[in-house]
Amino acid sequence: MPIDLARFPRALPSIPPDDPDLRDALHRVLDRVDVRRVIAQVRAEDAHTIEQQLLLASTPAPPFQEEERGRLFARLLLEAGTDAPRVDEVGNVIAWLGGEGARPLVVSAHLDTVFPVSQEIQFHKDGDRWIGPGICDDARGLTAVLALTRALVRLDYPPDIPLLLVGTVGEEGVGNLRGVRHLFGAGGAGENARGFISLDGAGVNRIIASGVGSRRFRAVVEGPGGHSWVDWGRVNPIHLLARAVAAFDDLDLPAGTTLNVGRIEGGTSVNAIPARAWMEYEVRSESEGHLALVEGAMHGALTSVVQDGNGSARPDEEAVLEVDRIGDRPAGTTSPDEPLVRAATQATRALVDRAELAASSTDANLPMALGIPAITLGAGGEAGEAHTPREWYRNEKGPEGVLRALFTLLALEQIDP
Ligand SMILES: [Zn+2]
Hints:
Radius of gyration: 24 Å
Number of domains: 2
Oligomer: single chain
Distance between the termini: 51 Å
Bound molecules: zinc ion
């Protein structure tokens, strides 16, 4: 069956309805003199916050080489008022606020960028936009964690909920979530966490409560190769991969699931039967079960295409298929009924009116898949062209990103003391 495009985009869980009790309780907290003073301080410190964002963004953090930015982030966390930060076995920077405690809430941003060591990192201002690689993703999130920490220190937080502040490694593609895997794994600092908030990128309206998972593969087909005229009829690895791609397109995908062949290459000459061809492909879904289902279907299609292609070929002239998994990001969802989603929704409404639930692929995927309530929030401002050297950030509603995280924690205390 062809892919039914009418099924996209898919329906997300709906946003929690307005909760008058929580709204009133939050407003009473926001009216406290000490809280009003801290809100004013967050706004007043906006220029300093932008300076820290530029400083963090200027410190390189290529995949698997996050140490330098990690050291800077640890120093800035300490300055912001946390207990002495430490770096765990994989490179995550971890700091408690006001002492260690059981069942912490984890607030984090990711240290790594997509840019290789060779990428020149420079920023310039064009009108009201800062432009340069990594200016927002996720220097903005790290900066918001620092500004949030300063605000919480002034409020003598945490009275009830132990708080763990983290800069994670390995959020971007090739990192394969290795930072949060370790953090929430056996013996990790977040193993018994009550919840997880990731501050990632810009924005103030969206609450990511659904984690789009992915599985990524590389398939290699090898055959005897040969002359395109003399050896006509031998198995052709490129033709086999092309048939497999066509078979992928014919799969009947479940709703909320996509697939993509992103790279394909092989052969040496237009007049030679290639001896080797490969492709890289992925399936994405909000459902872990659907990931497994489509992975099985794709693998089945590839295997039968190669088997059919071998047909009556001599055993020493058969094509050989090898498939390797090159990425695995679990899928998961945090229910709109969870205190964390309710708190973030009410906090967003208190600050900017409109709250939206969204699906994306972030550090929160991992705790979601483990059953730990997790959300990802934008850290304020507007941004675009992420993952390119043209990435930009505009500080429209920048402080609101910090305040939304703060209000979320304050609202959470009203639900989940
Ligand atoms: Zn990011």
